[in-house]
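Side project, low priority. Logging it here so it doesn't get lost.
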Amino acid sequence: MTIGSRRTLSRITGTGVIRDNDALAATLAEIRRLGFGVGRQECMPGWDSVAAPVHWHDSAMGAALVLKPSVEMPTDLRPLIFHMLKAAESIGELTTSRVASAL
């Protein structure tokens, strides 16, 4: 499937992959608002994910991500989201600390 005029999605993407540009833009806006994202079989069939951005000052420099088989993902994601946000924050602090600068 072509997104825009340049990108083709892999045939092995999951059933939850967002294939519509407007839906993708809305989902990204919601992720920015919430500060985390939940993927339901987007990357691969049968796998779900929770991710949180790792910030370097005011920019996102990466993400902390947990990817698990859908059948093993907890129903209540709140504890996992909480810990993912804390992990991403900790990684961001490490990358902007004086200790990291000295390495």
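Brief comment: The first helix runs from residue 21 to 34.
Revisit when time allows.
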